[in-house]
Amino acid sequence: MAARGIPPPQLPNSRLQKLFRHLSPSPSLKQSLRRTSLSLFATTKTSLDALYLSADACPPLKSVCGGVLAIWDTVERMKSSKKVAEALALRCFEILNEVAAPVMNQSDLSPAVKQKLSKFTDLLNDIKISLDSIQGQKWSRRFKHLNRNQDLLRVHEKRLNEAYQDLSSVVALQTHLAVKSRSKQSVVEFNRTNTALQLTNVALQQIASTTAQTEHRVEAQSRQTAAEFMQTGAKLERVSTTTLQTQLLVEASSRQAADQFEKTQNLFQQVTITHAATNANVEAASQQMDARMQRIVGYPPSYNHNSK
């Protein structure tokens, strides 16, 4: 009762009064708890705003987020029954947070899930109307109907829990069906991938076989080329040897020809010298005969060798 703002009853026994005062929270503790509650409330409001902004791809879920935000704004302005109202708003957020992830992970919502989300949005609107009604009451009326207002909020909390059970079961069913469908798709994808891998393995084996055959052909061609290269090298070596021998023969022939030419030149020189000596001897003999003929005959010679 103390938590509702009603003063504690006057207990006749002093011991019970001391015990009641001992169990009642101190003002500092109350203030600390209140600050903690406000901090938690503000943090949750930030998360709710972020969830509302991220629900654009799912209009039914965005409507639920909008309903919870509307309740939240009304609770922040309330003066009476605030703790019960805050607990109710937190419960709305908890339910929203529970169903948001599985709903947003589904690409296509079933009609049953859409219907349950619509009913849950209607319930949130009813709660919003009740909160606005309590907020709009005058102070005297709120004080007079305090218990009734709190009972009404607890009834709404019960309705929330029932709606959550109904909604969560449908969402869980669709999640199960979606997981089952994804499992089937995964099996189909796995089989398709496995078939592709088998085909790839066959292709790789064919490539390996072709590569081995190519390597054998290249190796045989390399050996043949090496043999031909060695044969060509041997031929070139024989040609080189023959060329060297021919060069040596040509050089020997050239030397012989040079020696023969030198001998011929020397012989020609000797013949020339001999011929010149013979001509000199012949001329001398002719002159001697002319001289004899002049002495014997006494007339000049009719033949002059010099004139010739």
How is this structure best described in words?
With 308 residues, the chain is mostly helical. 85% of the residues lie in helices and 0% in strands. The chain contains seven helices and no strands. It is rod-shaped and about 205 Å long. The termini are far apart.
Low-confidence stretches: 1-37
Total number of strands: 0
For the biggest sheet, the summary is: none
Q: From N to C, what is the helix and strand string?
A: HHHHHHH
Distance between the termini: 182 Å
Category from helices, strands and their pairing: mainly alpha
Helix content: over 70%
Q: What is the C-alpha radius of gyration, as a whole number of Å?
A: 66 Å
How many helices does DSSP assign? 7
Envelope shape: rod-shaped
Mean pLDDT: 76
Percent strand: under 5%
Question: What's this, in brief?
Answer:
With 308 residues, the chain is mainly α.
Describe the secondary structure blueprint for this structure.
Layout: H1 14-23, H2 27-53, H3 59-77, H4 82-104, H5 111-135, H6 139-144, H7 146-296
Helix pairs in contact: 2-3, 2-4, 3-4, 3-5, 4-7, 5-7
Q: Any descriptors?
A:
308 residues; mainly alpha; 0% strand; disordered N terminus
